[in-house]
Amino acid sequence: MASPLISNPEANSDRSRESKKKKRKKTANQNNQDHTKWKNRAEQQVYSSKLLEALRQVRRNQSPASGSSSEVPLRGRAVREAADRVLAVAAKGRTRWSRAILTNRLKMKLKKKKPRVAVTGNPRSKKHGVSILRLKEKRLPALQRRVHVLGRLVPGCRKLSFPDLLEEATDYIAALEMQVRAMTALTELLSVTGNGPGTEFSSNRPTPS
Amino acid sequence: MSSRRSRSRQSGNSRITDDQINDLVSKLQQLLPEIRDRRSDKVSASMVLQETCNYIRSLHREVDDLSERLSELLATTDASSAQAAIIRSLLM
């Protein structure tokens, strides 16, 4: 989908001027990214509205297959992917994890058409792989191991240096928290306005507002 | 073999001081709700990393749960234009 930054050339030039000014101020603290922007109320609202739009698109794409119970986990997956994509776009490409999410999306779309040929692989080679990993794990100190796990959790950060990884993880956590807040609010809104007063699975709260 | 040298070689960067690491770890520590409430002198870097991984995993799970609920709500909600307008006005 076309990102809003590309579609408006005029707005782009204005934004580039602003961003250049901001960049000049920030070159002094290049490593210190502004993580507090994820706590900004306005940022969350922008995210919520964009997410809503993306979710409506998801729903439109899936409407012919509505009503089948087997679709539920797939729909949840689609919602999750849309939420992650909108979150990555909200990061405006400044962080590695956001770029990784977007490029992974692209790779998944391209790979969908080709089914994976070797899924199971050789059982013998797997056993060797596992035993070699175990040896390596014993030799790595606990800190190194944890850093590795963290690198796998944050998208696109497996081979990053330690300080960069911590930087990315900090921003990623803040962004995830905002994502949770926005999606919770959206869920509550939809459960109130969508289904009316007598719903079973909406949370029992006296008055929303 | 000193552990400092081997650590810096394995991470790929030539010079990462321990102070830098401690500084970053303390920054990360501020984000974690688990550790913020505890006393800071008892917390090791390893524990901060462990808590970070756990926290990210729990956030992922929350997002997955919310996605499930949202997908159910989307299926049942009739996204008429009136409701969309209500939602937009409430969001902005």
Automatic annotation (TrEMBL), chain A:
Pfam families found in the cross-reference section: IBH1_N
Region (Disordered): 1-45
GO biological process: regulation of DNA-templated transcription
Example GO molecular function: transcription cis-regulatory region binding
Skewed-composition ranges (Polar residues): 1-11
Superkingdom of origin: Eukaryota
Localization (cell): Nucleus
Residue ranges of every copy of the BHLH domain listed in the record: 127-176
Compositionally biased spans, kind Basic residues: 18-27
Cited SUPFAM superfamilies: HLH, helix-loop-helix DNA-binding domain (SSF47459)
GO cellular component terms listed in the entry, alphabetical order: nucleus
Keywords recorded for this protein, A-Z: Nucleus, Transcription, Transcription regulation
The protein's name in its UniProt record: BHLH domain-containing protein
From TrEMBL, chain B:
Keywords recorded for this protein, A-Z: Growth regulation, Transcription, Transcription regulation
Location of the BHLH domain: 5-59
Nucleus in keyword set: no
GO molecular function: protein dimerization activity
Pfam families linked: bHLH_ILI (PF23174)
InterPro entries from the UniProt entry: bHLH_dom, HLH_DNA-bd_sf, PRE
GO biological process: regulation of DNA-templated transcription; regulation of growth
Protein name: BHLH domain-containing protein
